[in-house]
UniProtKB/TrEMBL annotation:
UniProt superkingdom: Bacteria
Lineage: Bacteria, Bacillati, Bacillota, Bacilli, Lactobacillales
Name used for this protein in its record: Antitoxin
Task of the protein: Antitoxin component of a type II toxin-antitoxin (TA) system.
Family matches, as InterPro entries: Antitoxin_Phd/YefM, YefM-like_sf
Signal sequence annotation: none
Entry similarity comment: Belongs to the phD/YefM antitoxin family.
């Protein structure tokens, strides 16, 4: 289990019946995959991503420091 979490690898556990095969993965990787699927299935969020990509490709993006909740601004 530790190796799966440390290496971000998955473990495929097979059974005699292929329908009973399972995949073991770290919770962090699972949560990340779920979030990605949520975003990909949300048309509104995907459109925002496409608009952002288009702005970057057109040279209309500006780089700035990342703000956090703890910043004074």
């Amino acid at each position: 289990m530790r190796k799966i979490n440390d290496d971000a690898e998955t473990l495929i556990v097979t059974a005699k019946d292929p329908e009973d095969t399972v995949v073991v993965m770290g919770k962090h990787d699972y949560d990340s995959m779920q979030e990605t699927m949520r975003i990909l299935s949300n048309p509104y969020l995907m459109e925002k991503l496409r608009r952002g990509d288009a702005q970057i490709a057109a040279g209309k993006a500006k780089q700035h420091d990342l703000l956090t909740d703890f910043d004074d601004d």
